[in-house]
Fold this sequence. Notes:
Elements: H1 2-6, H2 19-44, H3 55-65, H4 74-95, H5 99-117, H6 123-133, H7 136-139, H8 147-164
Helix pairs in contact: 2-3, 2-8, 3-6, 3-8, 4-5, 4-6, 4-8, 5-6
Amino acid sequence: MNYFAKIKGTTKSPPRVSLAEILWSWLGAFLGISAVGYIDSCFFAGSELVLLIAPFGASAVLIYGAIKSPLAQPRNFVGGHILSAIIGVAAFKVFYAQPWLAGSVAVATCIAVMHATKTLHPPGGATALIAVIGGEKIHSLGFLYAIIPVGLGALVLLLVALLFNNIPRARRYPEFWV
Protein backbone atom coordinates (compact mmCIF):
# COMPACT_ATOMS: atom_id res chain seq x y z
CA MET A 1 0.00 0.00 0.00
CA ASN A 2 2.88 2.43 0.68
CA TYR A 3 4.04 2.01 -2.91
CA PHE A 4 0.73 3.28 -4.33
CA ALA A 5 0.48 6.05 -1.74
CA LYS A 6 3.75 7.50 -3.05
CA ILE A 7 2.19 7.90 -6.50
CA LYS A 8 -0.28 10.50 -5.14
CA GLY A 9 2.55 13.01 -4.59
CA THR A 10 3.36 15.05 -1.53
CA THR A 11 2.95 18.69 -2.51
CA LYS A 12 0.60 20.94 -4.41
CA SER A 13 1.24 22.38 -7.83
CA PRO A 14 3.34 25.56 -7.79
CA PRO A 15 1.55 28.87 -8.35
CA ARG A 16 1.21 30.43 -11.79
CA VAL A 17 3.92 32.78 -12.95
CA SER A 18 3.17 36.42 -13.75
CA LEU A 19 2.27 37.65 -17.21
CA ALA A 20 5.59 39.53 -17.31
CA GLU A 21 7.47 36.28 -16.61
CA ILE A 22 5.53 34.54 -19.36
CA LEU A 23 6.37 37.30 -21.83
CA TRP A 24 10.07 37.39 -20.88
CA SER A 25 10.25 33.60 -21.20
CA TRP A 26 8.55 33.72 -24.60
CA LEU A 27 10.77 36.49 -25.93
CA GLY A 28 13.96 34.87 -24.61
CA ALA A 29 13.11 31.53 -26.21
CA PHE A 30 12.17 33.27 -29.46
CA LEU A 31 15.47 35.17 -29.56
CA GLY A 32 17.60 32.18 -28.56
CA ILE A 33 16.10 29.73 -31.03
CA SER A 34 16.04 32.45 -33.70
CA ALA A 35 19.75 33.09 -33.20
CA VAL A 36 20.63 29.39 -33.56
CA GLY A 37 18.26 28.98 -36.52
CA TYR A 38 19.58 32.08 -38.27
CA ILE A 39 23.20 31.01 -37.84
CA ASP A 40 22.22 27.57 -39.12
CA SER A 41 20.56 29.00 -42.23
CA CYS A 42 23.43 31.41 -42.98
CA PHE A 43 26.44 29.20 -42.34
CA PHE A 44 25.37 25.58 -42.42
CA ALA A 45 22.65 25.37 -45.08
CA GLY A 46 23.65 22.95 -47.82
CA SER A 47 26.48 21.46 -45.76
CA GLU A 48 26.74 18.24 -43.85
CA LEU A 49 26.59 20.30 -40.66
CA VAL A 50 23.45 21.33 -38.84
CA LEU A 51 23.14 23.68 -35.88
CA LEU A 52 19.48 23.61 -34.87
CA ILE A 53 18.52 20.33 -33.18
CA ALA A 54 15.30 19.40 -31.39
CA PRO A 55 16.76 19.06 -27.86
CA PHE A 56 17.48 22.81 -27.94
CA GLY A 57 13.71 23.41 -27.84
CA ALA A 58 13.52 21.62 -24.50
CA SER A 59 16.62 23.45 -23.28
CA ALA A 60 14.99 26.77 -24.18
CA VAL A 61 12.15 25.92 -21.81
CA LEU A 62 14.68 25.61 -19.01
CA ILE A 63 17.13 28.43 -19.75
CA TYR A 64 14.43 31.01 -20.57
CA GLY A 65 11.40 29.71 -18.69
CA ALA A 66 12.84 28.06 -15.56
CA ILE A 67 15.99 30.11 -15.05
CA LYS A 68 16.31 29.37 -11.33
CA SER A 69 16.22 25.60 -11.81
CA PRO A 70 19.51 23.82 -11.12
CA LEU A 71 18.87 21.93 -14.38
CA ALA A 72 18.99 25.24 -16.32
CA GLN A 73 22.34 26.51 -15.09
CA PRO A 74 25.26 26.87 -17.54
CA ARG A 75 27.27 23.92 -16.19
CA ASN A 76 24.26 21.63 -16.50
CA PHE A 77 23.09 23.05 -19.82
CA VAL A 78 26.36 23.00 -21.74
CA GLY A 79 28.03 20.12 -19.92
CA GLY A 80 24.94 17.93 -20.02
CA HIS A 81 24.51 18.39 -23.77
CA ILE A 82 28.16 17.85 -24.69
CA LEU A 83 28.65 14.78 -22.49
CA SER A 84 25.38 13.31 -23.76
CA ALA A 85 26.40 13.91 -27.37
CA ILE A 86 29.71 12.11 -26.88
CA ILE A 87 27.97 9.21 -25.16
CA GLY A 88 25.29 9.02 -27.86
CA VAL A 89 27.85 8.90 -30.66
CA ALA A 90 29.88 6.25 -28.84
CA ALA A 91 26.78 4.12 -28.23
CA PHE A 92 25.83 4.37 -31.90
CA LYS A 93 29.32 3.37 -33.01
CA VAL A 94 29.35 0.32 -30.73
CA PHE A 95 25.73 -0.82 -31.14
CA TYR A 96 24.78 0.56 -34.59
CA ALA A 97 23.35 -2.80 -35.68
CA GLN A 98 20.81 -2.70 -32.83
CA PRO A 99 19.44 0.87 -32.68
CA TRP A 100 17.09 -0.03 -29.82
CA LEU A 101 20.08 -1.11 -27.73
CA ALA A 102 22.23 1.84 -28.79
CA GLY A 103 19.46 4.27 -27.81
CA SER A 104 18.87 2.59 -24.47
CA VAL A 105 22.56 2.51 -23.63
CA ALA A 106 23.02 6.12 -24.74
CA VAL A 107 20.18 7.58 -22.68
CA ALA A 108 20.80 5.48 -19.56
CA THR A 109 24.54 6.15 -19.64
CA CYS A 110 24.17 9.88 -20.19
CA ILE A 111 21.86 10.08 -17.17
CA ALA A 112 24.44 8.28 -15.03
CA VAL A 113 27.31 10.42 -16.30
CA MET A 114 25.36 13.67 -15.90
CA HIS A 115 24.54 12.69 -12.32
CA ALA A 116 28.18 11.81 -11.60
CA THR A 117 29.45 15.10 -13.09
CA LYS A 118 26.73 17.34 -11.65
CA THR A 119 25.61 18.30 -15.15
CA LEU A 120 22.09 16.84 -15.15
CA HIS A 121 20.11 18.51 -17.96
CA PRO A 122 17.06 16.53 -19.12
CA PRO A 123 17.31 17.55 -22.79
CA GLY A 124 20.71 15.84 -22.75
CA GLY A 125 18.85 12.54 -22.96
CA ALA A 126 17.36 13.68 -26.26
CA THR A 127 20.78 14.84 -27.45
CA ALA A 128 22.16 11.33 -26.82
CA LEU A 129 19.17 9.70 -28.50
CA ILE A 130 19.42 11.93 -31.59
CA ALA A 131 23.04 10.76 -32.01
CA VAL A 132 21.62 7.25 -32.32
CA ILE A 133 18.34 7.72 -34.23
CA GLY A 134 19.32 10.79 -36.25
CA GLY A 135 19.63 10.47 -39.98
CA GLU A 136 22.72 10.09 -42.13
CA LYS A 137 23.50 13.79 -41.75
CA ILE A 138 23.87 13.37 -37.97
CA HIS A 139 25.62 9.99 -38.19
CA SER A 140 28.15 11.30 -40.71
CA LEU A 141 29.32 13.90 -38.17
CA GLY A 142 30.61 11.27 -35.76
CA PHE A 143 32.10 12.90 -32.67
CA LEU A 144 31.99 16.28 -34.41
CA TYR A 145 28.29 16.15 -33.39
CA ALA A 146 29.43 17.07 -29.86
CA ILE A 147 31.05 20.25 -31.18
CA ILE A 148 28.70 21.23 -34.01
CA PRO A 149 25.73 21.29 -33.54
CA VAL A 150 25.69 20.52 -29.83
CA GLY A 151 28.51 22.60 -28.35
CA LEU A 152 28.25 25.59 -30.65
CA GLY A 153 24.44 25.67 -30.55
CA ALA A 154 24.44 25.44 -26.76
CA LEU A 155 26.95 28.29 -26.52
CA VAL A 156 24.79 30.51 -28.75
CA LEU A 157 21.71 29.77 -26.64
CA LEU A 158 23.71 30.40 -23.47
CA LEU A 159 25.02 33.74 -24.72
CA VAL A 160 21.48 34.89 -25.53
CA ALA A 161 20.29 33.66 -22.12
CA LEU A 162 23.07 35.52 -20.30
CA LEU A 163 22.39 38.76 -22.17
CA PHE A 164 18.61 38.57 -22.23
CA ASN A 165 17.67 37.04 -18.87
CA ASN A 166 19.45 39.81 -16.97
CA ILE A 167 17.64 42.73 -18.61
CA PRO A 168 14.66 42.90 -16.21
CA ARG A 169 15.45 43.64 -12.57
CA ALA A 170 13.31 40.71 -11.42
CA ARG A 171 15.32 38.11 -13.40
CA ARG A 172 18.84 36.88 -12.80
CA TYR A 173 20.70 34.21 -14.71
CA PRO A 174 22.68 32.18 -13.86
CA GLU A 175 22.18 31.19 -10.26
CA PHE A 176 25.59 29.47 -10.30
CA TRP A 177 28.34 28.50 -12.74
CA VAL A 178 30.05 25.50 -11.17
